[in-house]
Amino acid sequence: MTVKHTTTTIFMNNVQGFLAEFKGARDVYEPIILRIGDLQDKKVFDDLFQDSKVKFVCDEIYGQLQELVKSQNPSIKIKQDDYPALIEKHLAGKDIDSYGVWVYYPWSQKLVHLLDEEEFVEVRTNRNRYKITKAEQNTLKAKKIGIVGLSVGQSIALTMAIERTCGELRLADFDTVELSNLNRIRAGVQSLGLNKTVIAAREIAEIDPFLNVKIFSDGLHANNMDAFFTGGGKLDLFVEVCDGLDVKIESRYKARELQIPVVMDTNDRGMLDVERFDLDPHRPVLHGLADGLDPNNIKDLTNEQKIPYILKMIGADTISTRLKASMLEVEQSINTWPQLASSVTLGGALTTDVSRRILLDQYHDSGRYYIDMEELIKDPEKTEEVANHSVNPYKPIDRSDIKKIIDKYPVNGQAAVNNISEIELNKIIDAAIAAPSAGNNQPWKWVFSKGVLFLFHDKYRSWSWGDYYEMGAHMGLGAALENVHLQGQALGLKDNIELFPLSDEPALIAAVRFSPSGENANAIAIDTAKHLFTRHTNRKLDTRQKLSQTFYSGFSEVINGFENVSVLYTEDENDLNELAEVIAECDKVRLLNELGHEEFYHELRWNKQEAEQTKDGVEVAAVDITQSEIAGFKVAGDWKAVSLLAEWEKGDAFKKLSLKGVKSASAIIVFTIPEFTHAQLINAGMAVQKAWIFANQQGVSVHPMLSPAFFFNRLIHGNAEEIAPKVADNLHKLRERFLKIFPLNNDQTEVFVMKVAIADEMGSKSLRKDKSELFYIE
Questions:
Q1: pLDDT in tens, 412-432
Q2: The pTM is what?
Q3: Is 18 exposed, middle or buried (0-12, 13-18, 19+ CB in 10 A)?
Q4: 255 near 238, Cβ under 8 Å?
């Protein structure tokens, strides 16, 4: 043990000494070029050996002279035996050991014997002819290129150096290399912890020590912008491949001011972007995709506020499927979005090619281009059959169908009596269409004929894979009937609701007859009716607060008025945390299912204009959601990307909103019915609506969270119809967790899950279609 400890100590002391010796050399990137015919250079050369600063010597000058002679005599077939005389002639009496230059690389302590600059460049670029002529090579030698961002930028810089696309490179990046960077950055493990600029500059120096390289190891910013763009002469071309939105915008404004062309590569689908500010100094930056941003206001934006601009700039709709899927996993199963060495290398090639042609006045356009390898080189496309169940099997219910059904309804003398005025009827219909429905699909058609108000189910509007057994539709129809009942009470009318009056016509949900109640409406009924129009879903996230027992007592009392409907609730924090996971997992199941995903996006409205055009669905503004979450949902609109998450068994990002939603819940309430029938579901919908109105009257917010009820009933009553076996197994486990919190009897089926909470008013209220679309008098 003692020997081992002593050996380790000696080793560590040696390491510490070694590190201390070379600490000052960590940022060294410029080689030392020595012409030992010069006495001062010869002294430096000798001192390197004297001080044991040389660990490796490479002297291949003879081979370089062979190449030089060969390049100068391309039409002559030179034999191996001819080279000594030709080289001797070229040396013209000079000592071969002192011919050319000796280049010392301090970071590796290597000493290399090379041809001097003119001959070195001639030989090194000889194989460029005539893709690049000698005259063009000389033109490029005078060009200066700046690159900011050295992930893709490193590949670009090295490719430009190898091709000798310029005579000077300016490299800016504040970051250092980490192990995870080595999947795409060409560097060895000995370079970990070094600045990316230093690594790139060193490699360029080892490729071509005569190239002028300037580095900006604190990145590009306002304080060094002038030095980067104009110090030592104005840049001829600027390559922007960094992550920071501030730098993207500020550097482009600077390039436009100086009339410098800008090239950008995004490392995805071979996307290359060109802005010719040299030819059109008034063109908008990023082709107008950055409208509203400038160097003055961008500093005031939070990272959250920048996200929509970033997605617009990179073209969120046009990025690759794999990158979309990967972006949805950022901060879930990965730390940041991915980059591949193959894409980075391709970016180096594309950017170098376009930059060279710009500098040689061979290309003059601006634009965005894609060299997508997966599109260019791929298997022949197969025609995929569309599953029958993905197509809505119903047509909108029309007047002729409705008339045929009404004609079958038995009308007696009493029913034919018109006991409701047109004003009262319109007030009742206004209340009916204010009712909630799954995804705000409004699945009702109201017809007044022969003194009877008929409610029809428009299955075209409510058809949904997620709505197993049309349970959501029937609960929505029940909510509308409850509104009819409550508005009737406020008008002093008595309603007689007959459910499914024609057994062979399930589209006819109810026939409602009205008669005078014989009493004036009381204040409670009138107040309740007012709340029919203020009732709303509130998805506002706030701090969890306890509700009084008086609220729960009143809530239960409301439900007691409905036969066969029961409620259970929990406000226990541990229960709520567990329910958050259950609900979130069910929401994830929906979005990872192709039909569930399609339906989710079908009911989503991205802005007020969309909502006003359709007057259905749910506007994003109604959801307490951040800009980054909105951006994520837009990216997730591509099913091909989401299908990859399903395949990889990922997608936890889809749980975030539900987890946050339940985190602020005062309680979760579950509604149950004894029999899983359409009539019972309508009854449940009526109970939910009245309880919802009661909650809002008490200042309590309501947010339906329905995916567990819908999936659990598909699982139990539908034998997991159209659910993959692995997903079904997961749902069974989720329901077991659910039942530990809500221990239902065998004669109880959960049909509605409601979050109640104290929260501020927020978001847009979902719009309703015009009455003329939903109601008419026969």
A1: 755 556 789 999 999 999 999
A2: 0.88
A3: exposed
A4: yes
